[in-house]
């Protein structure tokens, strides 16, 4: 039986920053400018990398875009920031079903400590996983080769018997370099179900209600 490895963002979790900014009341040029200052800023990856420290990342964002400093502080408030991500409707049932079928399931995700801490309770699918690696905890990032090796060694994974699901082709290529079969998730649940069918011979018709 194959070992299954899942990314989080845009695979099991909706990184909904565009909708979030709209919910926060931002529109037009201000929404676009704030998106570039924060969510589309290369500094965003530093949350996931876990080296700079969140306070320093926020300070650098505000230094780069002082016109959005108050907005960045507002977004960063815990009661607001937690709403940037939500699990997809299918995620818990999918992971629970695979777990009950006997699959070993692991997470490999570029993810920040603060956002994970704020949302862990609503990521109920994590109750059915066997372990994994989060980038902030190991100070490593996909698609660098080292993080795949960290996962393999930490979780005792046999690469030739594992399938990895990620939305980014670069991350899939990183997995393939490590000897892991990879499925790029370009169409959410539909891509996951197709990958499970092709790589594991598993069909889950009960999940089609989410398509």
Structural summary, described in words:
This protein has 211 residues and is of the alpha/beta class. The chain has two domains: 3-14 and 85-210, HAD superfamily/HAD-like (Rossmann fold), CATH 3.40.50.1000; 16-84. The protein contains twelve helices and seven strands. It has helices spanning 17-23, 28-37, 44-49, 54-64, 69-76, 78-81, 91-100, 113-119, 135-138, 145-155, 169-177, 188-200; strands at residues 3-6, 13-15, 85-87, 105-109, 131-134, 162-166, 181-184. Strands 5-4-1-6-7 form a five-stranded parallel beta sheet, sandwiched between helices. The protein has a two-stranded antiparallel ribbon with strand order 2-3. Strand 4, helix 8 (113-119) and strand 5 (131-134) form a beta-alpha-beta unit. It is globular. The two termini are 26 Å apart. 32% of the residues are buried.
């Amino acid at each position: 039986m194959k070992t299954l490895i899942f990314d989080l963002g845009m695979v099991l979790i909706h990184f909904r920053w565009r909708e979030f900014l709209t919910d926060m009341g931002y529109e037009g040029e201000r929404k676009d400018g704030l998106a570039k200052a924060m969510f589309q800023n290369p500094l965003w990856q530093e949350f996931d990398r876990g080296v700079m420290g969140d306070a320093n990342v926020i300070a650098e964002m505000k230094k780069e875009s002082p016109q959005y400093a108050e907005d960045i502080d507002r977004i960063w408030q815990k009661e607001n920031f937690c709403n940037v991500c939500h699990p997809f409707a299918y995620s818990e049932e999918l992971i629970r079903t695979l777990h009950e079928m006997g699959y070993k399931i692991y997470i490999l995700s570029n993810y920040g400590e603060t956002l994970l801490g704020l949302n862990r309770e609503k990521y109920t699918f994590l109750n059915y996983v066997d372990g994994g690696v989060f980038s902030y905890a190991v100070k490593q990032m996909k698609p660098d080769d080292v993080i795949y090796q960290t996962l393999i060694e930490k979780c005792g994974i046999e690469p030739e018997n594992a399938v990895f699901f990620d939305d980014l082709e670069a991350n899939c290529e990183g997995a393939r370099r490590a000897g892991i079969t990879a499925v790029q998730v370009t169409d959410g649940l539909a891509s996951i179900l197709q990958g499970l069918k092709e790589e594991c011979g598993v069909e889950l018709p009960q999940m089609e209600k989410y398509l």
